[in-house]
Amino acid sequence: MKKNFSEMSNEELIKTQKSLKIVTYLFGVVLLLLFGLNIYLVANKGFNASNIIPIALLPIFILNMNTLKEMKKELKARK
Questions:
Q1: Angle of CA points 66, 72, 76, to nearest 5°
Q2: How many CB atoms lie within 10 A of CB 30?
Q3: With a threshold of 0.90, does the pTM exceed it?
Q4: How far apart are the C-alpha atoms of 69 and 20, rounded to whole Å?
Q5: 15, 70, 68, 57: CA torsion to nearest 10
Q6: Cα(24)–Cα(65) distance, rounded to whole angstroms?
Q7: 4: nearest Cα among 74, 66, 65, 79
Q8: Least CB-packed of 24, 27, 48, 54 within 10 Å?
Q9: What DSSP state is assigned to residue 66?
C-alpha cells in the first residue's frame, strides 16, 4: 500500500525518490527502444497485435513521472 508522502520521513522520501527515478528512466529507455523496434517491424512486416505493447505501457511511465514530480514538490516544501 502506498504511503502518503507527507507521512514519510525525509530519508525515506529521498530513498524512494532515488529508486523510482532510476526505475522510471530505465523504463523510459526501454519504451523508446520498443517504439523504435515497432516502427521498424511495422515498416518491414506490417502491423500485428504485439505493436500495441509500448502504447499500453505508456500510462505507467506517465504515472511514474507524475509521482516523481509530487515527491520533488514535497521535498522542496520541506526545505
A1: 145
A2: 13
A3: no
A4: 11
A5: 130
A6: 7
A7: 74
A8: 48
A9: H
Instruction: Give the single-character DSSP code of 79.
Output: -
What nine digits make up the cell of 22?
532510476
Closest CA to 65 of 34, 28, 11: 28
Residues 6+ apart with CB under 8 A from 6: 74
> Grid coordinates in use for 77?
516544501
C-alpha cell at 26: 530505465
Q: Tell me the pLDDT tens digit for each residue of 32-52.
A: 999 999 999 999 999 988 899
Query: Strand, coil or helix: what is 1?
Result: coil
If you write DSSP's letter for every residue of 3-53 in order, what string do you get?
PPGGGS-HHHHHHHHHHHHHHHHHHHHHHHHHHHHHHHHHHHH---GGGGH
CA dist 5 and 69 (Å) reads 12
- Below-50 pLDDT ranges, the chain: 1
